[in-house]
Structures are given as C-alpha cells and as structure tokens.
Backbone:
C-alpha cells in the first residue's frame, strides 16, 4: 500500500493512495496522530496516541515538538526525558515504528497484516541536509519503504494541483504555497504546467509556527497571573489551555477566555485584539518572507505578481484568523486561498505524488546554499568556498543523483572541512539562516591515514601533497553526501553532512 506521511511538529498525518482519491487516515476516529513521546522515571517510553494518553499521568514526562530537535541534531544527539538519556535517532525510529504499528492496528487505512508500506515522506523546505538524512533513516529503520522525500510545501502544491487545477492558466501558472504548521514556516513558489510542478524557489523560518503563537498568548496570560507564580507542570497545562483556546478563535470571535482554575484564579479574559497584537509580529515575519520570495523569485526573474494564481495557505496555524487577515491586507483579498484541509494538505499532496495514475512530476530545487570553510595559508587563514548554490535543480525521484566533483592538489597534511548550509551568501560569506555541519577531518598525508587523533595534530603546509578528489552526491530529496579521495593511491572516506558546531 502507498501512503503519504507528513511527520509534523504537533501532528503526524497520513493519506492513502486509493484509486485517484487520497483519503486522510484516521486513528481511533481522529485524522491525525499526535507527534508526542512520553517517558517515565522507570525508563519506559510511549509514542503517539499512547503518549497522549499518559501525558497527564504522574511520573510521565512528555517531549513535544520532537521534530524541532532535528535541525540541531546529529547522529549522536541525546535527549533527556524523565531523567533518562536517549539517542535522538533511536527515539525517532521508535516513534515511527509505533506509527507503523498503529497504521496497521488502530487506523482505518485498511492495511492487510504484514503488508509493506511504501511511503512518500516530507521535511520542511528549509531543512538541513542532516535533518533530511535523520528523517529518512528513522523512517527506514522503523520499517517503511521510503520511495520519495519531498519538501512539505512542494507536496502541498500537489494537493492544490489536485483540487484547483482549473485556476492555473497559461497566464497564471505560479502558486505561492504558504505553509504555517506547529513549528515551521515555509514559503515555496511553484510553477504548475500540466501535471508537472516545478519549484522556483523556497524560503522559510525554521522556528516559527503555531507553537509560538501559544507561547505569545501564554505570555499575555502569565502577565495577568504574575509570572513567578507557576511551576513547570502548571505552565505546561496553561500552554495546552492557550493552544486549545487559540484554536477556538474564529473570524467573529471578540473575546479570548482561558480557564485558570489550575492556578486557583478566575477565568482570564481579554479582547481578541490583544491576542492578535501579541501574535502579529510573528505573522508579520511570514508576510515579510512571502514579499521577499515575490521580490526575488530565485532564477525566474521574469516573474510578475500578475503571473501568480494565488497564495495557498496550508498548515494548521493557517487557520488562525489573523493569518488570513494580514495576508489579505498585504497581498489583496482575491489572491489568498485556504486549503479546505490545512492540516492534511501535505499528506494528501504526498499521496497524490505517489499515485502513478495521476502522473504528477516534480522538479525540486536545493533550498539553501552549500559551501565549505577551508584552511588557507598554512591554517592561519580561512576562506569560504561556495559549492552548490541555492535553487540548484535537483534530480527527479528515480533519476540518478546529481554528482559534482572537484580536484586539486592538497597543500596541507590534513584537510579540515567545515561545511555550512545557509539561506544567503553576502559578500562571499554565509548569511541569514546558517547551519554549520560537524567539522570533517581528512588525512592528506598517507602516514596519518590510520590516525584516530587527527583533531590534535597540527595542520602544516605540505608541498608534496597528493591530488584530492571531492565528490558531492545530491539525492532527489536534497541531502548531500561527500566523499574525499586521494589520487593516485585512492584512500577514500565518505560521509553525510551532519549537524555540529562550526
Ligand atoms: N483552528 C485553528 N486556529 C489556530 N491555530 C490552529 C487551528 N488548528 C490548528 N492550529 C494550530 O496549527 C498547528 C499545527 O498545525 P499542523 O498540524 O499543520 O502542524 P505540523 O504539521 O504538526 O507542524 P510542522 O508542519 O510545523 O512540522 C498547532 O500550532 C495548532 O495549534
Ligand atoms: Mg506540517
């Protein structure tokens, strides 16, 4: 069976490929699976629905927004939960293995026992190479056959294409996807021609979503309560209350109420405009990104606003009335369209992409620049060397990966590579949203090839250095693998870019 699975910050949503339809899977009657991990002091873990069931039980601690940990994580990252340390990759694959089991046992997906699940999965457009590998590995370790990894807004673009193909005309073939979820914001400009979707450019804010509205609203409430007055579990309960009340706000709501009985106080009440005022700076940041995408549409410089069929709002936080209000104020009433299933648009789009009959194809681009800081001048100077520019066209799923090689003569005994992914390059330096990868050390000097203490060895200039080949393999999902080889002796090391300190 083929499924689109959107692993979200707050919810994980799955949709099935079913004869041209992509119904959302429900678990015990609910269309989403909570992205929660719970642990107790005895070292027991619960995931998803089971974690939600124990979240208020004494002795259990809950890890929310686990996805947010991924962009700062490497293969060795650990997470502390109820006094126990767990490797993050293990927690994640445990979480996804439970999802797989619940898809079989507690969902309406109609999966025969032991049937393999072919999955299309997604990551935020802005995700680092490390997050892409971690996510892919975790799904694979959990027993899914991952057949595609797409960027979330690109997937949502297929949901749009499936639903509103008729709005795309030869004159207006661009759609700007605005994806505001629980933890991330992405904007992607897509060009849609026939069944082909082409990503023109993407930008995003990695740590902005509905979770941040909850925090902003909690700030308002705590100002009323007196900030010092609450302990952690109470804060957690208040945050949940704020989230629930936020979700109940509709376009006609006038007042915002929050139940404060857990701190022995009367109901908190304020005008909904105060809530909007607390959240407006967050929404404004997303509006600024959209304006930026339209002003600087990557390589499609001929694009005009009149070529854009609309702004398509997806992601649960897109339901917040302030979002549509501010988008309409900035871009005009007619251009803003909200998905009828904002929380499920990505999963539905992923399923659409998997549907061979529908024949959709995607041309995706690298969402950030990749470059490397290198030692120069006997290690006393450092230069930044761009390798792959943002918006490089990626191979389509099923195609050969993109390979880039460069060769040069080594000038030092040890190569020290500090790879960086970033949203902009300004004056030849990484800028904007910058993700440093863990430094990579490579022995150019054959005598150092077995040395486990390379980090402690001094970098010295070396005139008799071998030729070095750097090979970059870029997958359709936008993850990058690097191999370094000395020539002619052929000593080689291959590694994936992992997150780490610069
Ligand atoms: N009616 C609503 N009004 C306001 N916010 C809402 C509403 N419904 C859901 N949300 C918010 O949407 C967010 C969850 O959205 P969604 O399920 O799309 O995110 P996600 O996919 O889990 O996260 P991400 O895509 O960032 O990883 C939560 O912050 C939730 O409070
Ligand atoms: Mg999402």
Residues:
């Amino acid at each position: 069976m083929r499924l689109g699975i959107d692993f979200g910050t707050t919810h994980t949503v799955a949709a099935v490929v079913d004869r041209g339809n992509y119904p959302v899977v429900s678990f015990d009657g609910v269309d989403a699976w909570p992205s929660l991990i719970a642990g107790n002091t005895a070292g027991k873990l619960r995931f998803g629905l089971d974690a939600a069931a124990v979240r208020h039980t004494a002795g259990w601690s809950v890890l929310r927004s686990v996805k947010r940990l991924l962009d700062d994580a490497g293969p060795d990252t650990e997470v502390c939960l109820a006094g126990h340390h767990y490797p993050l990759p293990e927690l994640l694959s445990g979480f996804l293995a439970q999802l797989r089991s619940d898809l079989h046992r507690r969902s309406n997906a109609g999966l025969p026992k032991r049937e393999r699940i072919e999955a299309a999965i997604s990551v935020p457009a802005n995700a680092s190479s490390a997050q892409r590998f971690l996510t892919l590995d975790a799904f694979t370790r959990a027993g899914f056959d991952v057949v595609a990894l797409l960027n979330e807004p690109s997937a949502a673009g297929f949901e749009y294409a499936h639903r509103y193909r008729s709005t795309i005309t030869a004159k207006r073939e661009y759609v700007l996807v605005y994806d505001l979820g629980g933890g991330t914001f992405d904007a992607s400009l897509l060009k849609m021609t026939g069944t082909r979707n082409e990503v023109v450019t993407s930008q995003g804010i990695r740590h902005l979503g509905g979770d941040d509205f909850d925090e902003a609203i909690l700030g308002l409430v705590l100002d009323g309560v007196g900030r010092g007055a609450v302990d952690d579990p109470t804060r957690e309960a208040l945050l949940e209350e704020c989230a629930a009340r936020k979700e109940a706000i509709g376009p006609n709501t006038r007042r915002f109420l929050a139940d404060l009985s857990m701190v022995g106080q009367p109901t908190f009440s304020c005008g909904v405009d105060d809530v909007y005022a607390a959240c407006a700076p967050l929404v404004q940041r997303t509006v600024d990104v959209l304006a930026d995408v339209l002003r600087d549409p990557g390589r499609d410089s001929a694009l005009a606003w009149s070529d854009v069929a609309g702004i398509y709002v997806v992601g649960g936080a897109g339901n917040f009335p302030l979002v549509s209000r501010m988008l309409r104020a900035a871009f005009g009433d007619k251009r803003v369209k909200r998905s009828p299933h904002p929380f499920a648009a990505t999963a539905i789009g992923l399923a659409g992409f998997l549907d061979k009959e529908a024949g959709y194809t995607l041309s995706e681009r690298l969402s950030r620049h990749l470059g490397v800081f290198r030692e120069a001048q006997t290690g006393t100077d450092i230069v930044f060397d761009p390798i792959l520019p943002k918006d490089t066209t990626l191979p389509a799923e099923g195609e050969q990966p993109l390979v880039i090689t460069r060769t040069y003569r080594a000038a030092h005994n040890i190569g020290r590579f500090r790879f960086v992914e970033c949203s902009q390059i300004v004056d030849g330096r990484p800028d904007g949203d910058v993700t440093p990868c863990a430094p990579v050390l490579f022995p150019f000097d054959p005598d150092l090839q077995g040395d486990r203490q390379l980090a402690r060895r001094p970098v010295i200039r070396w005139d008799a250095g071998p030729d070095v080949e750097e090979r970059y393999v870029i997958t359709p999902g936008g993850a990058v693998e690097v191999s370094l080889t000395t020539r002619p002796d052929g000593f080689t090391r291959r590694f994936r870019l992992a997150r780490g300190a610069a």
Notes: The pocket of magnesium ion (ligand 2) is lined by residues 6, 8, 152, 181, 315, 346 (CB under 6 Å). The longest strand covers residues 414-426.
